[in-house]
Amino acid sequence: MFSQPNLHSNSHETSISLIKSNRRLLIGQSSAKDCNSVCAAVYDPVCGSDDKTYSNQCALKGATCEDSSVTLAYKGACRKQPAKDCLQACFDVYAPVCGSDGKTYSNQCYLGVATCKDSSVTLAYKGACRKQPAKDCPQACFDVYTPVCGSDGKTYSNRCYLGVATCKDSSVTLAYKGACRKQPAKNCPQACFALYAPVCGSDGKTYSNSCHLRVDNCRNNKKVSIKSPGRC
């Protein structure tokens, strides 16, 4: 006698196979959706194994979803590794270049030192960095003469006009009330040793060395002190 094929069994196995296939498809679709998940706008930085800083754990998980090799390195923003063998001295020749960090460097050599210490700093263009004009600064002020002196040594008709200047260049602040007083000419040093031993000024700017800071103070009638050795 010939045994009849078990059609019911084959049909059952086919159904199970289809269910498993659909399940894998649904799981794949679910994973894809998780990669596009929305994270809360909370800044609690973490450093990924790809040396990138993510705003929070959720943002890191999104990157891990797209690339499983990206994992948590440690909590907090990624720390930049200091370069150990960077050049310490440059010729003191003024041929300014603008770095990608928006800072003006005296010449290509000084930019090279910065690049050595932070590889993200590159040449933007030759020449001093151009200040970007502010788009939403006030265009008009009442023409009332109550003069104030700006930190740039200019006299402004009133606080409003000074405010416009500050809006366009945040480094311009109020020096004192009243018109700027003319400062007697000073015999400021004209040169410094070409030694790169950076110091951080109390104005938040990095100076090539303490001599450059003193010369800048003298020439611009400023009272910037050394906040700390090294770059700001």
UniProtKB/TrEMBL annotation:
Pfam families: Kazal_1 (PF00050), Kazal_2 (PF07648). One of its GO terms (biological process) is cell differentiation. One of its GO terms (cellular component) is extracellular region. GO terms for molecular function: serine-type endopeptidase inhibitor activity. SMART domains: KAZAL. Keywords: Disulfide bond, Protease inhibitor, Serine protease inhibitor. Residues 29-79, 80-130, 131-181, 182-232 form the Kazal-like domain. InterPro entries: Kazal_dom, Kazal_dom_sf, Prot_Inhib_GrowthFact_Antg. The lineage of its organism: Eukaryota, Metazoa, Spiralia, Lophotrochozoa, Bryozoa. PANTHER family: FOLLISTATIN, ISOFORM A-RELATED, FOLLISTATIN-RELATED. SUPFAM superfamilies: Kazal-type serine protease inhibitors. This is Kazal-like domain-containing protein.
